[in-house]
Amino acid sequence: MTRNRKKKLAVRAEADGTGHARAARLHVPPPKEILTADLQERLISAFQAEGWPVESDGSPEFGTWTGWLGPVWSTLTRPGASDSDADPDDPDHHDLTTVPELTFITPKIPGIDAPEAMVLTLPGTTPLADIVRTVGEELGRARAAKVAALANDAKCSLCGDSYPATHLLPATEHDRLVLCPFCVFDGDILGGHPLRLAYLIDRLTDQDVAAPAGWSAVTALLACAAGPDFRARLEGDDGLLVPLPHWFDPALVWVWLPPGDLPPALQGLGPGTSLGTLVSAVEAAHPDLRDRFRAELAANLEEDEEDSDGEDTRDYLVEQLWPAAICYAVAAATQFRERPGGLSPWHLLGDGFEEGNLADNFDQVGSTLDADSLGPVFTLSIGVPLIAEALGFDPSS
Ligand SMILES: [Zn+2]
Hints:
The chain is an alpha+beta fold. It has 2 domains: about 35-150; about 155-390, no CATH class. Helix content is about 40%, strand content about 10%. It has 14 helices and 11 strands. The strands form 4 sheets. It has a 5-stranded antiparallel β-sheet with strand order 1-2-3-4-5, covered by helices on one side. A two-stranded antiparallel ribbon has the order 6-7. A two-stranded antiparallel sheet has the order 8-9. A hairpin with a 2-residue loop joins β2 and β3. α3 crosses α4 (about 130-150), α5 packs across α6 (about 215-225) and α10 (about 320-340) crosses α14. It is elongated and about 90 Å long. It starts with a helix and ends in a 6-residue tail after the last helix. The structure holds zinc ion. The site of zinc ion has 8 residues, from loops.
């Protein structure tokens, strides 16, 4: 071969890339090891950063990491193990370069009567932002499909609104008095039993992704009102019952947002979010809500008490219950859109909070609030429609 010919070949090889390809082949990096412990931690943090209430076990069990992301149960495993119960990061049992597998399931506790509404499997190499977005979208779709398929075969004992029988709960000592979420604190309801109701709400929402949005507002109100004894009372005398953490930290309550267009304050939070995130979003978008509440209440009181001898200077806003008022405003909007044939939750909320009923329930959850002082009733009955209206919902509808 002449020198010219050699040179030509070299130029051609470089031009068509084969030279580069060969060089690259010589420097192929070894397959990357992926540790499931890291992945699980980053997964949980990513959902938390997007406002989801999260829980995670600190270690894998039977080869599986478990997470609880709002109403979603997540598992993380490494396929192809010689011993599937082994720690997925144990190199004696696993090829650590095998891509781990993530599975997202809702409801959290699928049953025989209500199998999974969503089973989503993603490779562990999926970018975290894509995982959070995809799980949110699929969860919204799963709920919408289940809500659309609901069959109403029972009526709320108080308002008579039709619901699936499993969606109405006995909120008092009487098993046959089953209520929708918006009748629980009505003045016509006596003998509230919030300690039992708490477990019934959790069982319903854990097992049914289409459960009425309003139950999260009942949860929020009881959790916000509760006092330091609440945990002991919920755990019961034998301590065998294990209540969910949102009863002691209402910021962790999962709130379904209205399907369809969301108001500016709630953009990007669908299909649901933690109450903590919801409250922050609402407060950031509408920092004047408390002032508006006080102004409206003052105007109402003036109208009601024409013969009063002076201005009522008491501050009736109960800060401890404000997150519950926000939760009611949003959950009612969600129910209004999800149940177009049902009674208007706004209408039910009109006199859905009564001092005697609240005092009874507050007493049982160990609350230190004085429900008879009118502050709680005012905070809810005036706060809820006011917050709803500020968000762009129509509480007169
Ligand atoms: Zn009702």
